[in-house]
Amino acid sequence: MTPLSPENILKTGLAFWPAKTLLSAVELEIFTLLAKAPQDAATLRHALGLHERGTLDFLDALVAMGFLQREDGLYRNTSETDVFLDKAKPSYIGGILEMANNRLYPFWGNLTTALRTGERQNEKLQGTDLFSELYKDPAKLAEFLRAMSGVSRGANMAIAKQFPWLDYKTYVDVGTAQGDLAVQIALANPHLRGTGFDLPEVGPIFSDYVAVNGLKERVTFAAGSFFTDALPKADVVLMGHILHDWDLETKKMLLKKSYEALPEGGAVVVYESIIDDDRSQNAFGLHMSLNMLVETDGGFDFTGADCIGWMKEAGFRDMRVEHLVGPESMVIGIK
Q1: Which of 213, 220, 240, 209 minimizes the C-alpha distance to 170?
Q2: What is the pTM of this model?
Q3: Residue of 51, 241, 244, 287 with catalytic role
Q4: SS3 category, 42
Q5: 241 noted as active-site residue
Q6: Bridge partner list, 322
Q7: Which of 35, 138, 181, 201 has a Cα at 20 to 30 A from 149?
Q8: CA distance 22 to 105
Q9: What is the pLDDT of residues 168-206, one digit of tens each?
Q10: Which of 178, 181, 186, 182 is nearest to 208 (CA)?
């Protein structure tokens, strides 16, 4: 019989220690600095404006966590942090960690309140709204949309290769943001023509990203709101990390609009951190749903069986769930 141990309890209860260490490292842009050249502790301390007392513990904690390497007193990035956390590289995914550090970390301190009240705990408490503020500032909006691309990149690339695209000619990415899903699909499938659908303010950011990837002849932008407008017609309608933002009524409305935008034989693709049907394995998906509790008025994540049921209600057939990468999966339905 394995003896009982409190290790997992303590490790999880104090998990904010390593999380905040990494978030602070991203905030300080240490990985961007080290991408230029390895540095010793004293050089890093001066470059980052750190106090002598905590510098070695901070740097060596990053080594122990596997985010930095140290050899002969010089610190350098690992292969992963050099690719994904250097702000100078297009593969940078740190935008989502910046948002976690600046917004989510303090808001999650009110999780208990959210659980007791069912009310979100973000900027709304100060009488402001994240998205209305973002859409007023093009620079902040561009930064936020880049963050969304970073967190979705792996799943976007998987969908571009995994879905049977040879059976279709056109697609629309609903709530496209910067447009990474639309771009990855087009890059992997030269026969396809795609559309990104989002609010008008997103258009210039989307168009710049498409142009940088050399796709402006095949990928275009359509402005509109999925609350008030019909979705653009296409053979495939995709929604990535969209449904979980909204309450059940809105989820069903969006699936019905997707059905109406498709021809017979067309497909809807919903991808999220889909919770396993037993609700006991995908801890990330369950935590994401708690994040929706903290961040939204009615949003929640869901199981594959939940989504299949809503798709069936909207009129879809032949539904299936396919794993993508990490905690991400897609639910596919055919009209």
Answers
A1: 220
A2: 0.90
A3: 244
A4: helix
A5: no
A6: 330
A7: 35
A8: 12
A9: 999 999 999 899 999 999 999 999 999 999 999 999 999
A10: 178
